[in-house]
Amino acid sequence: MSSDEWTIITKSNARNRKQKKGAAQACPGLYRSNNHVAAAQHGDVDSKSKEQIQNAIIDCINSLERQYQSGKGFAYRLIDAISSDADNFHLNEIVVYGIGNFSTELYSPSMLQLAGALLLRRLVAAKFSNDSDGTNAATNQKDGDVSFRQDQQRVPIYYYEPCIVGAEKEMLQEVFCVHTLENNDMGKLPVFNMRQNNATALQQDAEKNGGSRYTLFYMPHCPMRLYCNVIWAHWDHICISEMVNSRFHPIMIFGNSFHAYDERMISSDQRMDPTNGMLRLVPFINEKSVYISSENRDLEDSLRMMDRAFNDCNVISFSVDKDFVVEKPTEYVPSDDPYQNGELL
């Protein structure tokens, strides 16, 4: 985790510095990384590079799937943790935040993170198909046909990255059939709004079936503030009561350890922050670590950046008793002065 996840920046001389003409602009919002600057510098990619990037992503998906099928390693434990917590892998959709720019380097951490989300969608879609018609969707596919469009129809991915470049957006939409969001309101966009803009017969059926399916927020290595905003926007999905409408599916999060945040947060001001819903839920979380660095010996070349992509990531689910009232946090509203917003810079 980077230090800027923990530091509130109160003032800076940077506001007085003039930006050099033609210099790469840092991307605003909740996510920052060197990849963002690289993307701003490299712009869109040519057709040959697009093909290389596309093939590399598929290589990563296939490598992760082989790891899953081996019954050990990160991919296997990730699927196993989600499957056991989500009532035998019943996911309604996957919301992906904070991947960064995946086109800047082949087999980069961002590319591996994207591949992990696409593999999850493939496996959940196959499970959904098996449950629906009794057939094995995985074995019915043609060799090399990953059926991205069919996967998206069964288990949609909603994807937001503030620094996405045109070639990446085009590839996500046209090749991998991912629904890209124009904004996510700093993590406060409700998943119900995402569904409204991407309605399908499957989703309508899922709405009628009530809260039996989970929403997975796939957020490896995001800032704490983004987790808090997602929690605030989906409080009724976590603290579910019998009176809540069936459209509130329970949520799970794949990302940084909430327990680690709790242990490292020593500032009394941060602990008293009324917008921090994450700390309020720490007593009610089930957290499963799915990444073990020592297993990364003899990995396929496409997985060589696994440490940077998934270290310290966990699957987090919530078990708040219906009779136990947890006060909802207040909404986070950024300051008009961007230098008061810490990690939002």
Automatic annotation (TrEMBL):
Q: Where is the SRR1-like domain?
A: 87-315
Q: Signal sequence span per UniProt?
A: none
Kindly give the Pfam families that the UniProt entry links to this protein. Answer: SRR1
Q: Which domain of life is it from?
A: Eukaryota
Q: What family name appears in the similarity comment? A: Belongs to the SRR1 family.
What is this protein identified as? SRR1-like domain-containing protein
Question: What organism does the record attribute this protein to?
Answer: Cyclotella atomus
